[in-house]
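REQUEST ID: PR-0412
SUBMITTED BY: lab tech R.K.
PRIORITY: routine
TASK: structure prediction, single protein chain
INPUT:
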Amino acid sequence: MFGMVPASYPQKASSTRPIRLPPVKITVVIPTFNEAANLPKLVGSLYALAIPSLHILVVDDDSPDGTGDLADQFITEFTGRFSVIHRSGKQGLGTAYIAGFQRALLEGAEVVIQMDADFSHPPEKLPELINTLKNCDMVLGSRYVTGGAVDERWPFWRRSLSAFGNWYARAVLRFPVRDATGGYRVWRRETLLGMPLEAVKSNGYAFQVEMAYIAYKLGYTIREVPFYFADRQWGTSKMSFAIQREAAFRVWGILFEYRHLQRMVSELPQ
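STATUS: complete
OUTPUT:
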């Protein structure tokens, strides 16, 4: 993992050439729906980071504004470093991420990143998140740990709703993640392979809560890295009271469905 030689690896006293391990393949999964104004800028920003072996995977839900067609153009421009999953109709955030995770794992990604297309997740923060993954199983970009913040231009109702949503999820599920609803995350390959992705039912913003809770229940180590969550500059926000209300009810379903997850995992053959 991360191209490092294990401490127990036998080393020769002298060598004419250092051993060069292949770079870790890193895949960024980006669900899109009507993000034509943002996608070119985001792709440019990500590749400008010069992260070795960075691959971008867009999961587009048949965007009416042509986002999917625009993404297809990048396949040729960034040969072998860019791919697209086209889905018929708007099928939801949760299923988009699951499809992206499964494709990334199938194609050999060692690190899988999830982020929004609207620049609310700053690309320049990505190297820090990836580096933090060296010491844990998953990393959360967090708005609600010391140093993190949300856009000061947000109206009061939206700030309150976001903060309450995270407090509510933590209170119901009784787990310590401060930003359970955030979608800026970095996963180890082994972590995603160890999670029951096929069992994940949430298909809105509750998807983020469900994934974090499963990881916590399975005993994976989680680190939260502060970042500033900026409101989108282009396009239309998909957040609404209805989405938040749906997530609030879904949290109780998550609590019930995974109540025995710890015991089930312990029963797996060693």
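NOTES: Residues 156-173 form the longest helix (18 residues).
REVIEWED BY: pending
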